[in-house]
Amino acid sequence: MWNLAVEQHGDWRPGRKSAPGFAEQCRQLTAARRDNDWLRAGSVNVQQQALRDFWRAKAAFFKSGFGHPSWRKRHRHEGFRITDTCEVRKLNRHWAQVKVPKVGWVRFRLTTPLPTAKSYRVGLRNGQWHVAFAVKPDPIPAPGTGEVIGIDRGVTITAALSDGRTLNCPQLTGRERARMRKHQRRAARAPKGSDRKTAEHAAAARIKAREAAVRKDWCEKTSTMLARTFDVIRFEKLNIRNMTCSAKGTAAEPGRNVRAKAGLNRGILAQGWGMLRCRTEDKAPGRVEDVPAPYTSLRCSACGWIDKRSRQSQAVFLCVTCGFTCNADLNASHNIAAGHAGGAARRKPASVREPTVSAA
Fold it and tell me: Which CA distances in Å does 257 have to 252, 261, 269?
């Protein structure tokens, strides 16, 4: 259905006749189902949801400059969403089944307690079919202790808390990275379109999927811990999309240190910064705050003086004014917990300010 929408309306551009909206596309779908048996054999709800996704992608293309909706490929963009019914029943401790329109009851293995949902999505990832239920969990109540925590996110240390703890997102081991590179090299050398190339790509994708699953599990557990322990949770406000933009530039103006920037981008994305912030907000709505990022790592949490010379290295902070020293990430987390914005205290404290001499 997505590909039919791309073929029918994918070449529409501003300046032409008005583009059909979602309601008009649904009317066209009704007429097409009357004339085509193969189209009528499918679920109308699935087809309508595909049209809705296409129209949202088209609107995002004109509004935000995202990529133009393109063709979906077999074995890569497989999946559908059901919103009109959600009949689920549990079979035993590990198995349940869901009723898929036009298909019947389909059995699946439980990875979480059986949810109460109104819609679900079936998708294919790395050769395995998954069913995901749309459930909005109840927010976690605040502990009522009045504690405020500041969280500084980094690449070396994923999350440095203002209470002194450091949390690190699990990463692939050296052996796993070597095995993934081996499969990628074999895939690059295999003939195009061969079964060997497909198998090697699938083997590398399984390793990446395991890394993503471990990262998601860590973010879920960490966000739950933060929501249950602290009343106010403050994050450094980071624009991750801009921080991970490519530095390759254009053919006329190529970028510099492109490979180093690509490695930094991979390191940032592997930490799960955005997922941790998003899931914490979902579990503790109204209790998550963003603190402006400028100067949080250069400001002394003891005296408030801002000087780039105080940041001795990635891990060492030594204030050039008062001599306060600690871990640089811990110092930044203290500033974030206090809610200090950039440039808040640029003058030296009175106790360490040089005396002024007036001319007689």
Answer: 16, 6, 18
Residues 317-336: tens digit of each pLDDT: 998 888 889 889 899 999 99
pLDDT band at 347 (very low <50, low <70, confident <90, very high): very low
- The domains of the chain are located at 2-64, 79-133, 148-288, 308-350
Count helices and strands in the chain by DSSP H and E runs: 10, 13
Task: Identify residue 264 by its one-letter amino acid code.
Answer: L
Residues in contact with 150: Cβ distance below 8 Å, sequence separation at least 6, in sequence order: 161, 162, 234, 291, 333, 334, 335, 336, 337, 338
Give the number of other CB atoms < 10 A from CB of residue 80. Answer: 20
Q: What pTM was estimated for this model as a whole?
A: 0.73
d(CA 156, CA 82): 42
Nearest to 71 by CA among 167, 8, 28, 7: 7
What number is the average pLDDT over the span 122-132?
Answer: 83
